[in-house]
Inverse folding.
């Protein structure tokens, strides 16, 4: 345990957190609501007629050549979302089937280790990748009523962006001043954290470095209810051969009880 440290008031959240100071991963917290998935095991815990009948994750797979699945024999476990170079409208999306059991208004924190073995590359239309927190799924990410997420797109595939939308103000395409490089999880995986402790100052971190602050104080009613959300997608055109592959090592979410 020599590599594990403890912060009694982690990032001014009021919670005790054990973390790895070398990798920046959160190990344990004092939050009462905790969700974790390391994607280890024989199959991805989603509904599939020949696997299980109680879904933990829902997948949206539109015109994909490769279904969303665990990468074979990867240490630590890993899920791959792959958009191929066929000229199709394609969506590879992993979420909770629109069961929005988390709340941005309850001090929610999202954390995931993500890499891109293939950065979003363009044909005649944009390939986009988003990961973080979102309301109910929509094939067009910008129309989702609430989100706080990181974004990459093929127009500038190495330039990381962050975005927030509280259904009042849509604050898009903010630079995280972070360059993303294609590679394996071991070589290029980064830990992305979205801290909603203060909804007027939602903080975005990459490997524990603050890269952006967004305002979601316009949240009303149940708009702030969200789910973990990972998506790579592209629209169809005459020659949209764009590609992109997102790799997910783990996801963790913490919040106060309602």
């Amino acid at each position: 345990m020599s590599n594990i440290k403890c912060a009694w008031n982690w990032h001014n959240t009021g919670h005790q957190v054990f973390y790895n100071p070398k990798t920046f991963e959160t190990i344990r917290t004092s939050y009462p609501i905790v969700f974790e998935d390391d994607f280890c095991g024989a199959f991805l815990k989603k509904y599939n007629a020949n696997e299980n009948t109680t879904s933990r994750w829902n997948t949206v797979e539109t015109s994909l050549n490769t279904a969303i699945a665990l990468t074979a024999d990867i240490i630590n476990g890993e899920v791959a979302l792959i958009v191929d170079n066929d000229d199709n409208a394609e969506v590879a999306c992993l979420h909770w089937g629109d069961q929005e059991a988390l709340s941005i208004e309850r001090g929610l924190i999202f954390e995931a280790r993500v890499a891109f073995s293939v950065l979003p590359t363009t044909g005649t239309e944009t390939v986009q990748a988003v990961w973080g927190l979102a309301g109910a799924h929509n094939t067009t990410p910008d129309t989702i009523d609430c989100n706080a997420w990181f974004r990459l797109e093929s127009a500038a595939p190495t330039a990381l962006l962050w975005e927030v939308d509280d259904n009042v103000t849509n604050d898009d395409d903010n630079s995280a001043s972070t360059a993303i490089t294609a590679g394996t999880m071991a070589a290029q995986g980064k830990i992305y954290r979205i801290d909603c402790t203060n909804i007027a100052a939602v903080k975005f971190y990459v490997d524990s470095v603050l890269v952006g602050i967004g305002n979601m104080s316009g949240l009303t009613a149940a708009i702030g209810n969200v789910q973990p959300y990972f998506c790579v997608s592209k629209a169809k055109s005459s020659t949209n051969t764009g590609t992109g592959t997102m790799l997910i090592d783990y996801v963790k979410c913490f919040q106060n009880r309602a």
